[in-house]
Amino acid sequence: MANFERLNQYQQEMLRCNRCGYCQAPCPIYTLLRREPVTARARIQLLRALTEGKLSLSEVGSHYIYGCTDCQSCRVGCPGGVRTDQIFAAAREVIADSEFFPAGLAELEQRVRTTHNISGEPGENRLLWAENLDVKPEGLVGKGGAEVVLFTGCVSALYPMAYGILQDVVEVLEAAKVDFTTLGPDEWCCGYPLLSAGLPVSELIAHNLDRVEALGAKTLVTTCPSCYHVWKYQYAPDSIEVMHSTEFLDQLLEAGPMPLRSLNMRVTYHDPCDLGRKSEVYDAPRRIIESIPGLEFAEMEDHGENAMCCGGGGNLETLDAKLSGAVARLRLEQAQAVGAEAIVSACQQCERTLRMAARRDKVRIKVMDVVQLLRTALPKDETET
C-alpha cells in the first residue's frame, strides 16, 4: 500500500490545475506520442485520483509518472504557474517507496549505492579520462589548498564518448593558469539520478561535501548541469561557490581575453534543461560561443527558457531508450533547420544523447560541448594566431 502523505502536501497545488492544455505543446513526449495520459494535466488528475482513493497505484500509473524527461517545460508553459516540478517530484518519492518502482531504476540505485557511480565501475576508473592528456597537471588529484575543485561527474569521467570534455576543460584551465584539483577516486555520484527517481541521497551529499571542504577550495566547478544543479540547490554549501564550467570560463574570458583563432563554422546552441530552465544559466554559454572569431551563430526555433529537451533527462533512457532517442531526433531536426554544421551544448548527457541519435539516424551534424569548442579555438602553439 502506497503512502501518499508526501503527495498530499500538494493537494492545493494540484487543484490549481484547470486542465487548460497549455502543457501539451511544449512537452516532447506528447509531441511524439500524441496521447493525453502523458501530459502534465492528465498526470495531475491521475495523482488526484490516487490521493482521493478513487484509483489504486499500479504499474501503469508508475509508467506514466516516470515516462517523462523531467524537462519542466510544462512548468514554464503553465499560464497559472502550477508547480508541476514539485508535484511530480513528490509523486516519484511515493512510487519509489512502493512495489511499483521501475526495475531499471532499482538497478540504477543499486549501482550508485554500491559503487558510487551510475555505471557500476570501480572508483579508480574515474581517472581513466586523464590517461590521454599530453601532460598531467601537478596536483590533479587531492591537492590541498587549490583554489578550484573540478567535480568531474559520472558521465564525463566514466563514459569514453565524453572523456574529451574533461580533457579539454583541463587544457583550458591550464592555459589560463587556474590552480585546480579533482577528488579523483574519492568523488561519488552527486546524487542527481537518484533524486530524479525520488530516492534519498543524504549519504552521497555528506561524502562529497566532506571531501571537497577538506581540500579548502573556494570554488567548485563542474561541466555537468545535473551535478551543478544538485550542488547549488541541494548541497548549497556556505563556504564554496558552485559554478558551471561555462560560468567559470566566461569569467576567465572577461577578466583577460584569451587569444583565440578563427573557426569558420555555423553553429547553434542547445540549452540543457538542468542548466537552463532549472538553473537559469542561459547567457554564459552563448557569450563564450560569440567570443570565438569566425563562428556564425544561429538560434534554433525553441531556445532559452523554451528549449526542447534532448531526451536524455529524467532517467527516461533507462526506462525507454527508443523514446529517449526519438526526442533527441526532434532536437536534431531543429538544428538542421537553421543550417547548423554543429550543435553545441554544455551538458555531456545532452551531447551523448544527441550524438547517439545522430549516429543512429545518419544525421550529418557535429555534436560538441562549449568547452570543446573553446579549446578548439585556442592556438595550438605560441606561434599560432
What does this structure look like?
It is globular, with a radius of gyration of 21 Å. The strands form two sheets. The protein has a four-stranded parallel sheet with strand order 2-1-3-4. The chain has a four-stranded parallel sheet with strand order 6-5-7-8, with helices on both faces. With 385 residues, the protein is of the alpha/beta class. Helices cover 46% and strands 7% of the residues. The mean pLDDT is 95.
SSE diagram, text form:
Layout: H1 5-8, H2 11-15, H3 28-33, H4 40-51, H5 59-66, H6 73-77, H7 84-96, H8 103-115, E1 148-151, H9 154-158, H10 163-175, E2 180-181, H11 192-197, H12 202-215, E3 219-222, H13 225-235, E4 241-244, H14 245-255, E5 266-269, H15 283-290, E6 296-297, H16 316-319, H17 321-337, E7 342-345, H18 348-360, E8 366-369, H19 370-377
Parallel strand pairs: 1-2, 1-3, 3-4, 5-6, 5-7, 7-8
Helix pairs in contact: 10-19, 14-15, 17-18
Entry summary:
The protein has 385 residues and is an alpha/beta fold. It has 19 helices and eight strands.
Question: Descriptors for this entry?
Answer:
385 residues; alpha/beta; Fumarate Reductase Iron-sulfur Protein, Chain B, domain 2; Rossmann fold; 4-stranded parallel beta sheet; 46% helix
Give the strand tally.
8
CATH architecture of the largest domain: 3-Layer(aba) Sandwich
User: What is the N-to-C order of secondary-structure elements (H for helix, E for strand)?
Assistant: HHHHHHHHEHHEHHEHEHEHEHHEHEH
| Integer tally of domains | 3
Helical proportion, percent range = 40-55%
Q: Uncertain segments of ≥5 residues (pLDDT<50)?
A: none
Mean pLDDT reading: 95
* Number of separate helices: 19
Sheet with the most strands?
4 strands, parallel
Describe the global form. globular
Write down the CATH topology of the largest domain: Rossmann fold
Indicate the radius of gyration in whole angstroms. 21 Å
Q: Which strands sit side by side, in order, in the main sheet?
A: 2-1-3-4
Structural class by helix and strand composition: alpha/beta
- Sheet-strand content, in percent, reads 5-15%
User: What is the CA-CA span between the terminal residues?
Assistant: 67 Å
Reading off the top of the CATH hierarchy, the class of the largest domain is best stated as Alpha Beta
